[in-house]
Write a structure and sequence with these properties.
Helix content is 44%, strand content 22%. The protein has helices at 2-15, 23-26, 28-32, 34-37, 53-66, 114-120, 145-171; strands spanning 70-73, 79-84, 89-94, 101-108, 123-128, 133-140. Strand 2 (79-84) and strand 3 form a beta hairpin.
Length: 172
Amino acid sequence: WSFVNDAVAGFLTDRVVRTETKIENLTPWATLGRKWHFMDKGFLGDDIRDWDFDVLEKILSSIESISNENDYDWTNKQVIHVSRKNNKPWISVYTKRADAVWLQFSSEVGRFSKGQLEALSPRNEVVAGTDDSDVVKLGFDSITETSQNLLVELLQEQFNSQQTDEAVSSKK
């Protein structure tokens, strides 16, 4: 029966090729971090980005100007979550949508007026969230100096309101 064992061994070595799959090859966003969000890879289908990377850079610099205590989670495929140290995200930046870079955050119901959001971006949406909150979504395919200044003001207001909400929650 040695010929059967030889045949089986020969069949397996000729037919089966073992390769090592590195996790980095399957999840480049986890490995590349910030760099991934500035790449043209990762968009749905054959979608082509309608915005320049300087839009993302300006949005991130606006967020960075609010606080140097932000933690950035760069390891998600389509979104960057920004949180205070050891806390839940206060804003999320969606970078792999072809039409625009989208900001999303929860706020107190009615905190931001439609006019205030319209001045920042014509692509805006306020959706009723849970627990007496709104989910605010803002899309940017371009950003001017004026709208960036307005964005910094809005982000500062949002950041401050989250800080107040956290202080109230911790006293309960």
